[in-house]
Amino acid sequence: MFKIREYCDDDLNHLQKVLSQPSNYQQTFQLPAPSSIKLKQQVSAFLARENHFIFMLEHIDHKKVIGRANLYCLEPPRHHSARFGFNIDEDYQNIGAGNALLEELINFSQNKLNLKKLVLTVYTDNNKAINLYKKFNFREDGLIRKFAFRDGKYVDAYHMSLELN
Ligand SMILES: CC(C)(COP(=O)(O)OP(=O)(O)OC[C@H]1O[C@@H](n2cnc3c(N)ncnc32)[C@H](O)[C@@H]1OP(=O)(O)O)[C@@H](O)C(=O)NCCC(=O)NCCS
């Protein structure tokens, strides 16, 4: 049902569409409606760095890109760890796409990069993402009070992590 591959230039429009959707920018610490010029610069700068990756998730039957994830390895002395974030198109949430993408991120980190730990930050009210992370045995490492300013007020977040084999 899903195919996961690395980012290519044709994906920029999709990226801009997804990051302009309220559930996506509000839950991933971004401002609304990123311009395509800025986004292109951000993507180029991100991918130019060593061990920084962007993956795209395609719905095979619909021949459509429906999600993306970024993952980057941390620098020494934290080089056993990587940080990641991901978004699924609002029209395609709740059909297992996030599950498939997270499964691949864990597999890639463990079996291709030989990493020992995945870390992330998630708003405390993002129940859907937190449930998904817990399903894959991520645990909460700590609460960050007033992590970001969203819709006129400060919002708390959790640090979460998964130790890999
Ligand atoms: C969070 C997100 C990545 C999940 O992806 P998804 O494709 O919608 O989720 P899936 O269909 O793969 O569901 C995976 C799990 O999420 C949890 N989940 C799904 N819908 C949920 C809901 N409405 N409430 C609580 N948990 C829910 C469940 O644990 C589910 O597993 P299950 O079906 O075995 O019970 C996606 O909704 C998204 O992009 N949200 C906006 C951006 C975001 O929050 N990114 C993460 C920031 S840290």
Automatic annotation (TrEMBL):
<protein>
    <recommendedName>
        <fullName>N-acetyltransferase domain-containing protein</fullName>
    </recommendedName>
</protein>
<feature type="domain" description="N-acetyltransferase">
    <location>
        <begin position="2"/>
        <end position="165"/>
    </location>
</feature>
<dbReference type="InterPro" id="IPR016181">
    <property type="entry name" value="Acyl_CoA_acyltransferase"/>
</dbReference>
<dbReference type="InterPro" id="IPR000182">
    <property type="entry name" value="GNAT_dom"/>
</dbReference>
<dbReference type="Pfam" id="PF00583">
    <property type="entry name" value="Acetyltransf_1"/>
</dbReference>
